[in-house]
Amino acid sequence: MTWSIVARDPQTGNFGIAVATRFFAVGSLLPHIRGGQCAVATQAFISPLWGMEAADRLAAGEAPEAVIADLTARDRGQSQRQIHMIDARGRIGAHTGAACIDWCGQVQAEGVSVAGNMLANGQVIADTLACYLDHPDLPFAERLLGAMEAGEAAGGDKRGKQSAALRIHRSEDYPWIDIRADDHPDPLAELRRLYDVAHERYLIVADAMPTRANFSGVTDRTEIDRAIAAEEARRKALVQK
């Protein structure tokens, strides 16, 4: 029902997942990330339990292939499930069950995995991966979004469009950004719009939030307010052109 990209940003170590599908609210179930540790996407005949358990186990140091072997051995529905993941060491694991609906499969390169099922064709994940690899200089979020847009242009979900999501974690278990288009005629375009809106205030505040390394975060609002004012002025100038 879905295709997704799971990646670790080589510049920052941040983990991200982007996904699109003809299914409602995919962002509520598919992405599972542990800050600084791993990212997991669980899809097809989805089991959120797979995603939660795999993320916890990868964060504890288990190898992706060992986690997948255990999950598939325990689950009678494994033939209908798909999962792919990457850990802090860059190790990638993937499983596409034999009963997943065509087109289905997975491709990968260093630091990135793309997997999907119920797709128009295999070019969807091939183009998603190629676009990601072709744009290493883009900001991580834009790189993920652009990759998904390339997959959509190749045919995407063969049933059509409905929802999409983008989640990125920095060092923390809470996301740096987590945006979703749960029911939209063009969900990837809506993610682009939401990502732009996030720059107005949200991402400025997100950069000031407490972290494990800085439990208090930024407590002086002066720089935050200055950055917000500068962004508002920039946006106003763009509108006036």
Could you describe the 3D structure shown?
- α3 runs antiparallel to α4 and α4 runs antiparallel to α5.
- β7 and β8 form a beta hairpin.
- The protein is of the alpha+beta class and 241 residues long.
- It has 7 helices and 10 strands.
Task: Provide key terms for this protein.
single chain; 241 residues; alpha+beta; Glutamine Phosphoribosylpyrophosphate, subunit 1, domain 1; six-stranded antiparallel beta sheet; four-stranded antiparallel beta sheet; 7 helices; 10 strands
Give a short synopsis of this structure.
By secondary structure, this protein is an alpha+beta fold. The chain has helices at 48-59, 64-74, 123-134, 140-153, 187-198, 202-206, 221-240; strands at 2-8, 15-21, 31-34, 38-44, 81-87, 92-96, 105-109, 112-116, 163-169, 177-181.
Write the layout of secondary structure elements.
Blueprint lengths: L1 E7 L6 E7 L9 E4 L3 E7 L3 H12 L4 H11 L6 E7 L4 E5 L8 E5 L2 E5 L6 H12 L5 H14 L9 E7 L7 E5 L5 H12 L3 H5 L14 H20 L1
Antiparallel strand pairs: 1-2, 1-8, 2-9, 3-4, 4-5, 5-6, 7-8, 9-10
Helix pairs in contact: 1-2, 3-4, 4-5
